Amino acid sequence: MGRLTGGDPSLLRRINSAVVLHALRGAESPTLTDLTRITGLSRPTVEGVVDGLMEAGLVVESAPEEGEARRQGRPARRFRFRAEAGHLLGIEIGPHRVAALLSGLDGRIFGAGSREVPEAASADERLERVRMTVADVLRRAGVARSSLRAVGVGSPGIVEADGTVRLGTALPEWTGLPLGERLRRSFRCPVLVENDANAAAVAEHWKGAAVDSDDVVFVMAGLSPGAGSLIGGRLHRGFGGAAGEIGALHLLGRDVTPEKLLSTTGEPLHPLDEQAVADVFALARQGDERAQAAVERFLQRLVHDVAALVLALDPELVVVGGWAAGIDGVLEPLRRELARYCLRPPRVVLSMLGEAVVATGALRLALDHVEEELFAVEGTVTARR
Amino acid sequence: MGRLTGGDPSLLRRINSAVVLHALRGAESPTLTDLTRITGLSRPTVEGVVDGLMEAGLVVESAPEEGEARRQGRPARRFRFRAEAGHLLGIEIGPHRVAALLSGLDGRIFGAGSREVPEAASADERLERVRMTVADVLRRAGVARSSLRAVGVGSPGIVEADGTVRLGTALPEWTGLPLGERLRRSFRCPVLVENDANAAAVAEHWKGAAVDSDDVVFVMAGLSPGAGSLIGGRLHRGFGGAAGEIGALHLLGRDVTPEKLLSTTGEPLHPLDEQAVADVFALARQGDERAQAAVERFLQRLVHDVAALVLALDPELVVVGGWAAGIDGVLEPLRRELARYCLRPPRVVLSMLGEAVVATGALRLALDHVEEELFAVEGTVTARR
């Protein structure tokens, strides 16, 4: 339910600005007369909006068309949107590596870089790697830091609206870290911090396994699964940014922890020790019964958690990523058991973007932010009751 | 992310129409000059839109103000929105009763009626009671059936977009019933069929326990809980209308069914036999150990299911309704255990609308439908990528 809050003049200016900018992107170097016709706005309104957009550097007068120059009198001024008016970064800060992607305002990626980080690195060390990676990427692409319009960041944990990590057990010193504030010291543009599974869901929808679906759950499958959801094409963060943290059903409950679940020795595995987990799966494939039982317990837990997400949200599509997605035999049991548990089983596919998924989603979030400022009317014109 | 799909003339007409109608609702009998000033639209555009709205019966010329009549020349025409231009119905079709609420286009309820229905009634019998109840309500209020603009219906089950019940085990002959199509024979206006828990969530948000929250899970607590969710103030139906059917995690899975869970004899209870359930709770209060163990199992299951919903969705507020909400001691264990399981525990409160909740929500959905047609630009102006 959306309604126009009619009568607010600044709101109407924003709507008019978005309408004109959209018409400018859609038309081939339109004149003011073209824009008046396309938008239905009055000529003075269009003139005022175009002046404002030129002042903001987003619109520029384009050269007159050839035929026009020959006609009598001054040719009508023509305008175009400046896609090169700014740049965007998408950054992943993960347990084992940091990565950055660089694009123009159209989202086309033309720079990338990454660095390994020790699992046990302090928050300061980890952020220093981020700064080094970003500096490399900008330098190699010949892009000035001052031309950045927005930076998106994807990282494990529950992230507050201001970019503070409310809870993040996967990385040392992460819980309570004012990640957005820390990163904003390096950038003069908005920095948007997002949970890694949320960013991954956005990425798969943008250019991965979910381009054809607006109702998607991305499962970051690991020892304790997390998830990011798109509902009607929008990221669903939840009221406190904690949506999708389904692993907590067992982590904080009475059940056995995932680290014990997949152990063959009774001793819990380290939650980030992917090699130890891979060893258990390898043993299971070789016929080791304790390992097979451990893998079975792990898969049952994963199926249960994904089923709970699917029943709560009813997505069209489940995309499975994270390291467990690379383990043989995760997809088939998931499909089979979801068909049993769910009233309307979703399609289940593997992530297509591999290790670039989180940085790609972070970049898309930066692009969304900029486009929202430029083109969106939703959220400003709509208000519920 | 919303964008204007600039350049579509019929879309711009709709936007302009919504803007003018909103200004008409907000202002006191405005003139065309007032409307031009308020909306920023050109005078010919405003005139065209107002003519169209008058033709549709939604706007009427109001009497000139007193002072104006005395001035020289013809006074400027003034206009107002006709709130009395139509009526709405909200209908509940439940296991034990059917109910109907009647309102004007402003949503103010001025007619109500209900009838008991035997649990075992056939679909035809149940729909006949609905027709009788509606006829009573309309007759008593003196409202012609032809003035109905939309009818909302809430009923158990997974409901498809066209109003067909995809799966509905609570009512006899409900699965596969083309409920929307059957009811459309009785009405010439749109009939919107919705899952009962979804309708209840909408109702609590409109005028119940959730008026101050846009991120709400309504739990219809019974032997097998279902849920309806609002995200950002909108109903979240899921891709196939099955969102919130969390009870299926156990119903279709390997766990013991809820009917056995709450049994003290080993024999399963009938899923709709609320008296038998109440007896178990009464026994537990009297100290019967088997009954206490059964109640404990029931509460654990409910907590687990609600925790799964909360972790998946991260709502601000959980509203508990349905018959189990009336049972002593449901709220406290829910609050306590959610605080253990959930990273960001939501507030947990009881439903405020009692047995009117589903019909109230159905009425609000009918009102939403009509308002969306009249005022919404969202969903038409916005399109993702």
Automatic annotation (TrEMBL), chains A, B:
Q: Name one GO molecular function term.
A: DNA binding
Q: Which residues form the HTH marR-type domain?
A: 19-63
Please provide the Gene Ontology terms (biological process) for this protein: regulation of DNA-templated transcription
The record's Gene3D superfamilies line, in alphabetical order, gives: 3.30.420.40, Winged helix-like DNA-binding domain superfamily/Winged helix DNA-binding domain
One Pfam family it belongs to: MarR_2
Source superkingdom: Bacteria
Q: Which InterPro entries match?
A: ATPase_NBD, HTH_MarR-typ, ROK, WH-like_DNA-bd_sf, WH_DNA-bd_sf
Q: What PANTHER family does this protein map onto?
A: BIFUNCTIONAL UDP-N-ACETYLGLUCOSAMINE 2-EPIMERASE_N-ACETYLMANNOSAMINE KINASE, ROK (REPRESSOR, ORF, KINASE) FAMILY
Family classification: Belongs to the ROK (NagC/XylR) family.
This protein's name = N-acetylglucosamine repressor
Organism name: Streptomyces hundungensis
